[in-house]
Amino acid sequence: MGIGVKVKVWGDYALFSRPEMKVERCSYDVMTPSAARGILEAIYWHPGLKWVIDKIYVKNPIRFTSVRRNEVKSKISASNVLQVYNGADKPLYLSTKEDIVQRASLILCDVCYIIEAHFEMTNKANASDNPGKFKDIIMRRLKRGECYHMPYFGCREFPAQFCLCEEKEIHTSYDTVPEKDLGFMLYDMDYSNPDEIQPMFFRAVMRKGVLDLRNCEVIR
Amino acid sequence: MGEAIKNRYEFVVLFDVENGNPNGDPDSGNMPRIDPESGLGLVTDVCLKRKIRNYVETVKEDAKGYKIYIKEDVPLNRSDREACESLGITETEDKKVTEALKKLKKSDKDVDIKLRDYMCDNFYDIRTFGAVMTTFVKASLNCGQVRGPVQLGFARSIDPIVSQEVTITRVAITTEKDAENKSTEMGRKNIVPYGLYRVEGYISANLARKVTGFSEEDLDLLWEAIINMFENDHSAARGKMAVRELIVFKHSKELGDCPAYKLFDAVEVRKKEEIEYPRKYQDYTVQIHEEMIPDSVEMKRMI
C-alpha cells in the first residue's frame, strides 16, 4: 500500500455514462472508480504515480434529472485536416445545421462523494521522487484548492468542487441501508496495451452508502 | 500568436432575459428549460458556447488564427473535394484518401500532434473549448480528445422562473389548401417574463500551455465575447437578453491560490427583500464579499 488520501467532491450535476447507453446517455447511480481517478488526476498526477481508488462514499441521495441538448454528431476528420494542412484550399468546419442531433442525458443531481484513494509508485518516477514528496504535493494542492485543471463529474460541463476531507466519521445518506446492489459497473479502462484499450467491470454493491473497491473482483 | 496564459482564472457571468426564451428545451416543445425540482431556469453550457463562437466569428470574419470550426448557418459544400493535389493524391473518394494517408502516417509518427497543433493554431473555438478529432494513430492523443482550457457549467436562474405561453396569430397562410377554410394561423411563443441567470466558468492555464496555446489575446477576446454574446444574437424568440456582470478572478499562479467554490461563494446575488416578482435587473443586488477572497487573487468586474 502507498499513502492514502480522502477527498470530498461535490457539485450540482454529474454524468457517469453507462457504456451500454451512451448515445442517449444515462448515468450510473454512483461515481465509477475511473471517474474518481480522473478527478484525482485533475488535481495531481505525475508519471511516477498511479492512483488506486479504495472506497467511494455516497454522501447524498441518488437523484436523476434529464436534459436534452442539440449536439454535433461528427468528429473532426483528421484526413480532412491533413489535406488543408498540406495546403489544400477547402472548407474546414462543421455545420451544426447539417450535423445536428438531439440527445437526451439522464444525469445525477446534487452529488457529493468522498473518495478514499492511495497512490502507488511506478517505475517512471524520477530518482529524486518518493512517496513522501508526492504526498506533500497532493496535500498542499488539496488544502489550497490548486488543480491542474478543474475536475469534473464525467463531463466537463459538470464541474466538481473539491476539498480535503476532514470528517473523522463519514456519514452517508445510506447509513441505514445494509446493501444496495448496483449491478455491474465500469471499473476502469485497461491501458496496458495502447493499441487495445480494454474496459474492466466489477460488481458494484453499496454497503451503507460505501462502495468498497479493495479486493473487488475485476472482470474483463 | 502570443504566449499561453500563465494564470488560472475563474469567472461568474450574470445575464438576464426579459420577455424571451433564453434556451428552449427540445424535450418539452421548446419551452424554456426548467429544473423540474426547484423551478429554477437553466441554460446549458453549449448554448452559451454557441454565442461565444458566433460573436468571434462575427468580429473576426475568419481572420487567420480566429476561424471557427463549429459553425451555424453555412452552406455545405464539403463534397467539393478537389483539393488533394498538394499531397499528390488525386483520388476523390474518402477511402482512397485515407489509404494514401495511412502510408504517410508510417513515415511521420507525429502527424497526429502536428494536425492537432495546426487546428489549435487556426481555430479559436478549438483553442478555447477543445474538440474531438478522429486520429490516424489508434489510441494516440487520448482518442483524439483535445481539452480546451475554458470550461463552463450550466447557467441557473437566481429565483424560480415562470414560463408563460403566448399565443400569436398570423394572417399569411402557408398552403393553398389551408387558405380555403381559414384566414389566420395560430402560433405559440414561450417566454420568461424575467430571469436573472448565473453561470460559472473555469480556465486552466496548464491546458492552455501544454495543449492548445490559448493566449492572453485570446483571453481578452473571450471576455469581449462574453460581454457581447447577446448583442448580436437578437431574434424573435430571445426577447431582451443582456450580460449584466462578468466578474473575473485571476489567480496569481498557474495552479491557482484557492478553491474555486470559495471565490464563487464570495459573489452573492439576491433579490431585494421588498420585491415579490422580479421583473428587472434593478430588483436584484449583487454583493461581492471581498473579505472572502484571498489577497493573492485579483478580482475584476469587467462591466
TrEMBL record, chain A:
Belongs to the CRISPR-associated protein Cas5 family. Subtype I-C/Dvulg subfamily. GO terms for molecular function: endonuclease activity; hydrolase activity; RNA binding. GO terms for biological process: defense response to virus; maintenance of CRISPR repeat elements. CRISPR (clustered regularly interspaced short palindromic repeat) is an adaptive immune system that provides protection against mobile genetic elements (viruses, transposable elements and conjugative plasmids). CRISPR clusters contain spacers, sequences complementary to antecedent mobile elements, and target invading nucleic acids. CRISPR clusters are transcribed and processed into CRISPR RNA (crRNA). The keyword RNA-binding applies. Its EC number is 3.1.-.-. This is pre-crRNA processing endonuclease. Pfam families: Cas_Cas5d. Gene3D superfamilies: 3.30.70.2660. It comes from the Bacteria. It comes from [Ruminococcus] lactaris. The gene is cas5c. Keywords: Antiviral defense, Endonuclease, Hydrolase, Nuclease, RNA-binding.
From TrEMBL, chain B:
One of its GO terms (biological process) is maintenance of CRISPR repeat elements. It comes from [Ruminococcus] lactaris ATCC 29176. Transmembrane segments: none annotated. NCBIfam families: cas_Csd2 (TIGR02589), cas_CT1132 (TIGR01595). This is CRISPR-associated protein, Csd2 family. It holds the Pfam family Cas_Cas7. Coiled coil: none annotated. InterPro entries: Cas7_Csh2/Csh2, CRISPR-assoc_prot_Cas7/Csd2.
